[in-house]
Design brief:
The complex is a heterodimer of chains A (111) and B (117).
Chain A: E1 4-7, E2 10-14, E3 19-25, E4 32-37, E5 43-49, E6 55-58, E7 61-65, E8 71-76, E9 85-92, E10 99-101, E11 105-110
Parallel strand pairs in A: 2-11
Antiparallel strand pairs in A: 1-3, 3-8, 4-5, 4-9, 6-7, 7-8, 9-10, 9-11
Chain B: E1 4-7, E2 10-13, E3 19-25, E4 31-37, E5 43-51, E6 54-57, E7 64-66, E8 76-78, E9 87-94, E10 107-108, E11 112-116
Parallel strand pairs in B: 2-11
Antiparallel strand pairs in B: 1-3, 3-8, 4-5, 4-9, 5-6, 7-8, 9-10, 9-11
Classes of the chains: A mainly beta (111), B mainly beta (117).
């Protein structure tokens, strides 16, 4: 079935360093969503990308959607301890209003 | 609005016991979903519903059942609990699709942590 591969699985950074997580699909995606899950919490929607080559920013977070709409990335500039958690990408299946989630990237920030 | 609510928050079951995980949303969303999340892993879709009276299997439906008698409620039933069902269960909901390109945001409940011993 359709899969969305996400890397890395885990990253531990020093506070102030940058962080990037990547999402890849073998098929063209109509859109891609990003969610954040704090430790012990539930996934919370961050953003949706729809257009080829789209770039969106939320403060220190930069989201990109590839030109071929098969990959996406989330980049955090100058990480803070409040950024810790797991970041998931998610994309709709070809049919129905269902999402397939990447495995997530766990971010730990050392102060 | 309370959003998506789930009960209970925690539960320990013995092997072979049964239980129902409750999920309710007050956003008048048509679509509702049940996911499980194993430690350090992503979300796996168990069952979903596109409206009252309509349910369908997701990726990992074995050992579970659902019903959707109202728009608001989407309970998940575990029959004959097994240790492999130890997980965190999330319920989510979303409105009608945003069109051919956009997908509605999924709103998640706080989760139920289930341990089967």
């Amino acid at each position: 079935g359709q899969q969305v591969m996400q890397i890395p699985q885990y990253q531990h950074v020093q506070e102030g360093e940058d962080f990037t997580t990547y999402c890849n699909s073998s098929t063209t995606l109509s859109n891609i969503q990003w969610y954040k899950q704090r430790p012990g919490g539930h996934p919370v929607f961050l953003i949706q990308l729809v257009k080829s080559g789209e770039v969106k920013k939320q403060k220190r977070l930069t989201f990109q959607f590839g030109e071929a709409k098969k990959n996406s990335s989330l980049h955090i500039t100058a990480t803070q301890t409040t950024d810790v958690g797991t970041y998931f990408c998610a994309a709709p299946l070809e049919y129905g209003n269902k999402l397939v989630f990447g495995a997530g990237t766990i971010l730990r920030v050392k102060s | 609005n309370a959003g998506v609510t789930q009960t209970p928050k925690f539960r320990i079951l013995k092997i072979g016991q049964s239980m129902t995980l409750q999920c309710a949303q007050d956003m008048n969303h048509n679509y509702m979903y049940w996911y499980r999340q194993d430690p350090g892993m992503g979300l796996k879709l168990i069952y979903y519903s596109v409206g009252a009276g309509i349910t369908d299997k997701g990726e990992v439906p074995n050992g579970y059942n659902v019903s959707r008698s109202t728009t608001e409620d989407f309970p998940l039933r575990l029959e004959l609990a097994a240790p492999s069902q130890t997980s965190v269960y999330f319920c989510a909901s979303t409105g009608l699709g945003g069109g051919p390109l956009r997908t509605d945001t999924q709103y998640f409940g706080p989760g139920t942590r289930l341990t089967v011993l």
